Amino acid sequence: xxxxxxxxxxxxxxxxxxxxxxxxxxxxxxxxxxxxxxxxxxxxxxxxxxxxxxxxxxxxxxxxxxxxxxxxxxxxxxxxxxxxxxxxxxxxxxxxxxxxxxxxxxxxxxxxxxxxxxxxxxxxxxxxxxxxxxxxxxxxxxxxxxxxxxxxxxxxxxxxxxxxxxxxxxxxxxxxxxxxxxxxxxxxxxxxxxxxxxxxxxxxxxxxxxxxxxxxxxxxxxxxxxxxxxxxxxxxxxxxxxxxxxxxxxxxxxxxxxxx
Length: 260
Description:
Structural class: alpha/beta
Helix content: 25-40%
Shape: globular
Number of strands: 10
Radius of gyration: 19 Å
Largest sheet: 6 strands, mixed
Mean pLDDT: 86
Number of helices: 11
């Protein structure tokens, strides 16, 4: 069953056709990787789906209902959330505050954070529970600007997770972290979202991460979908290998490459 579907979605920036009549589906419950070289259109497509951009043409459907003209906030309420490649945290606030703000936003509560803290203890209990799930409970009272880069990546995903989405886009969840940190971060994230029944789309350049954690891979190139298949099908797709890995790479190299 398709949870998300785009139909002939297009977006241009001047003469640049960033997304070119893309048909894209995400099935409920799957872990999908969206890959492609820089400028392939991945981030633009995600921005269109999450409501940060409006398409020039085409339709976006979520749970069978058209959401093309919905705002980003309306899509969050519908169940679409995302983390960002460049982590967007309130560095001066504690990690617990960052999660609590996400929960308050989810529930449509506004006002001064300190006043809300006294009125709604349940939100703060939930915030601490989310931090615990991501292994960040010891950081609850620490300013977000002082934690490590790997912890910031986890906190960014935790903030999106606290919105209780049905569909979660993870934009470069391991970028900028050390090689030894990547698998532990993805193990935590994938275990949590799977246990919560959340559908995931990973936008990623690290092919080790892509082939290890995804069930289906969609490859974009020059604004269009180049290929769509299982990791094994993509690994042995000559066109993908030539485009992303290099003309002289063997099919097996696609599974071994660190970056594409």
